[in-house]
Amino acid sequence: MEHLLGNGWEIKPAGGATGEAYQAKYEDQTLFLKRNSSPFLAVLSAEGIVPKLLWTKRLGNGDVITAQKWLNGRELKATEMNREEVGKLLQRIHTSTELKAMLQRLGKQPLTPASIADELERKALELQPVPPVILESLAYIKEEMAAISSNHEVVCHCDVNHNNWLMSDRGELFLIDWDGAMIADPALDLGMLLYWYIDKDHWESWLATYGVALTQDLQRRMHWYVVAQTIISIFWHHERKQFAEKEYWCQFLKKIQS
């Protein structure tokens, strides 16, 4: 990485699940570097959804390094997810034809309720014994699957955790970490955000900021996707022997299913 930038640059890991992100500093310049980012990053930058992409370089071994402007800022707190800017940015993402066209060019197939249900059933076979709350929830997933349909598929981030929302010290809001993006029902993102962060009494007003009404159909779809995503989280933590986190999501699943 050092030979890519030249002498004098200080490079250190910048965190992240993949371990492929770095901060590079030289005098008054600071860059955010990442190895093998998706070409999707260029469109996200052009749309102002992530910090500005400055350059892309291919190494001799085939790896691609991207450099983005390093922004001084902070992650949003969980209590700030009700901010108007969050709903407006998510709405802009979900209505972007450029983002959807780019994911389609990259070969992304829409994530359907049927494909999610099939994956959950396959994963359940690896989790023995299966906790009763998961068995009950899997039955719900299968029973409701046919009714969970939307002819409006958009680019979904699929991990709208507050840690992925970056507020710069100039008041600019960005949504980062797009490695898991899919084309899917917007109810997938909306359900996760509302169930995790917004009091149910405020769902209607939050969705009004986003630009839709809280209909029975939307509630049904959001609930289905949140149940499915919660089961996925339980499986994910089980595979990594993170049993405290697994139990947390089991309790969360009991709560939303009751």
Automatic annotation (TrEMBL):
Pfam family, one: APH
UniProt domain Aminoglycoside phosphotransferase: residue ranges: 14-221
GO MF term set: kinase activity
Keyword ATP-binding part of the UniProt annotation: no
Keyword line: Kinase, Transferase
Matching PANTHER family: CELL CYCLE REGULATOR CCRZ, PHOSPHOTRANSFERASE YTMP-RELATED
Record protein name field: Phosphotransferase, choline kinase family enzyme
Native source species: Fictibacillus macauensis ZFHKF-1
